[in-house]
Design goal:
- By secondary structure, the chain is of the alpha+beta class.
- The chain is 17% helix and 42% strand.
- It has one helix and six strands; from the N terminus they run ββαββββ.
- The strands form two sheets. A four-stranded antiparallel beta sheet has the order 3-4-5-6. Strands 1-2 form a two-stranded antiparallel ribbon.
- A hairpin with a 4-residue loop joins β5 and β6.
- It is elongated, with a radius of gyration of 16 Å.
- The N terminus is likely disordered.
Length: 114
């Protein structure tokens, strides 16, 4: 499975003069990525029961999109001890969810280990 490079930077979005849409490095309009992301994350939540709290990465691939999302798996008190997980969510070019994998778990109050 391809890995998303941590700390990698995407090209800044810019306006497409022809359509008025936002684009990333000459790719399809950014609105397409947002729509695909919303649809896929809705499917992910329905199937797993985990509501994504944040999208920490996204990447366009040959056959669709790869998103890295953060979800709460176990709520604890205090909230800083709640258990969160990072999932890689794969989506085809039509916005259909094709798979997901948990790639990490951590307590909300803990920083990334490097």
């Amino acid at each position: 499975m391809a890995q998303i490079e941590q700390g990698s930077r995407m090209a800044a979005p810019r306006d497409d003069a022809d359509t008025g849409s936002r684009v990333i490095a000459g790719d399809k309009p950014m609105a397409d990525a947002n729509g695909v992301m919303r649809e896929a994350l809705g499917q992910f939540e329905e199937l797993t029961g985990h509501r994504p709290e944040a999208v920490s990465a996204m990447r366009k691939e040959e056959d669709g999109w790869l998103f890295r999302v953060e979800v709460m798996e176990l709520r604890r008190i205090p909230d800083s001890m709640s258990l969160l997980a990072t999932y890689e969510v794969r989506v085809d070019s039509d916005g259909g969810l094709t798979g997901w994998e948990r790639v990490g778990r951590y307590e909300r109050g803990r920083a990334d280990r490097r």
